[in-house]
Each structure stands twice: as C-alpha cells, then as structure tokens.
Structures
1.
Amino acid sequence: MHALRNLEIVWEDLMEAFENGDPDMIYFLDRETGEVFSVPAEYEDESFWEEVASQEERFLEVPPFDYGQERQLVHAFIQRLTNESLKGMLARAFSGKQSHGRLHEILSFYPEEQERFQAIREAFLTDRAAQWLEEHDIYPPERF
C-alpha cells in the first residue's frame, strides 16, 4: 500500500497517455514529480530500464488504451441514437474492419452527435484515469 499522495499532474499529458493506442510506446507516471513521459517499447538504454525496474514504486506504467471498452462505449452510443438513418449507418460501419475511422467520418456530418460522442468518450477516459490514479493512492489537487 502506498502513502496517500497529492500530486500535481498535467492532466492533458495523462489523458494523452490513456489514449495511446500505439503498442510501440510506453507511458509512465513519475509518482514523485507528477511528470508523464513516454519511451519507445524497444528503447535500448539498459540503465533506463534498470532504474524503472528498481524504482517501480516511483514509476508507474500507464495502462494501454482499452479498445474493448471503447467498442462497448461505441456500441452503447449507437444503440441510444434516435436518428434511425444515422443509427443504421453507424451500426454497419461499426461491424466492419477498422470501424473506428469510419465512425468518425460519418459523425463528421452530424456535428451535434459527434460532439456528444466526444463528450461521452472524454468522460469515459477521465473516469478510467481517475480510477487508475485512486488505485495507486494518487489524488491530484485539482481534479480535471
């Protein structure tokens, strides 16, 4: 168990880390400074990896983007739409390969729905990040 800690974190940096879908990048949160930083997964500096491993209480690896949870979020968003035409287009796009890109393309023609989806997605990511911080007994002084 870690000591409770108020830590000033640049929220935008943490959100960028939580949105990271690139398996070739690893993000860390420094529990002492609040800094969020990334390194390539194949970073070849042994002293860096040794330091991270030896100070695992200090350097927390930010979990990778959760595509499964986002798919559930998108599915729920589509099901709640009242515009049946848009709902049908998104449902077809969602069921295909690379559905995420097409979803955004379609929503670009429906700015109000696009804005609503972005708000839902941001709330999901914010909740996920806040829950992760709390699991590690970190409480930013100004919460988002």
2.
Amino acid sequence: MGELRIIGGDWRSRKLRFPDAGGVRPTPARTRETLFNWLNYQLAGADCLDLFAGSGALGLEALSRGAGTATLVDHTPALARALRENLRLLKSDRGEVVCDDVTHYLATRQRPPVDIVFMDPPFRQGWLERLLPLLDEQQWIKPGGWVYVEHESERAAPAVPSHWQLHREKSAGQVTYCLFRVTGRDD
C-alpha cells in the first residue's frame, strides 16, 4: 500500500492510503505546494479534472484547498475504488471518480468545460502528444482556464495549442512541471 499526505487546506495532514497498482507515483509534496501556490487565487470554487488520478494527490489536494468539484479519472479499478473510499473517509461529496481510459473519457466529453485540468501521465508513453490536442479539440477547458502538466525532465516541453500560454514552469529532479493558461481560441 502507498500513502499520501494532504499538505494544505481543510484536510491538511490527513494521510490516505492507495494500492500499489499501475506504477503510481504521487506528485511530491514540494511540487504540490508550488503548484497550489501558483493556483492560489484560481482555486476557490473551481471545477477541476484530475486525469491519471492514481493516488488522487492533485484532485484531493485541490478539494482540500477549496475547489468546488473535482473529477478524478483513472483506468485502474483498484485505484478508482481507493479514490472513492478516500472521498468517503474525507466526507466529501464534491469529488467524483470515473474508472475509464483517459483517451476514451476525453474523446467523449459529456459535461461542461472545466476551470483546471491536472495531467500527470505515466512517463515515456507519449500520452501528452496524444491528449493535449484532444483536450483542446473537445474544448475541455473554459477560456481563462488552466492546464497543469508533468513530464520527464529529459524531454522537451510538450507542444500545446497556440492559444495556451506558458504561465509557470519548474523542474525538480527527473520531473518538469508546467502550468498553462488557456486564452480564447484562435478559430
């Protein structure tokens, strides 16, 4: 079993467990602290989407810090069960867990666009190249919304649509993380 500690907000210091499944590597506490400092004024009441949710580190942290809702998407049934159980333990009805392949989920949008997307996919599998265009084509992000992306430091920054502006970027060891602001569409 893995363990995750919420680092800020209403559930600060709460420890949650998740199964060792699917090569989950939760976003480290220091990285989460930096990310949520970047998003400090955008988070209150935000509708968030946590893709490749895994341990739930990003989506649960967002809820703890005042996000209105968070949809956590992961294709591994054991992780989805653990995410649901952790939401129950936290007595939160603002989180929804979807057990689905991320590509399928994004290709069949059946809900309004979101304010913030968190994307921390497995490394070295080409996920960002496939999914960043899909996020844009399916108009998943509201204008003025945010997309957070983690990728391996040895690779170049992912190509993003021209109306996404790099807001912040930082590297920590083998991980580079970026926050993009989505402005009005070009088309």
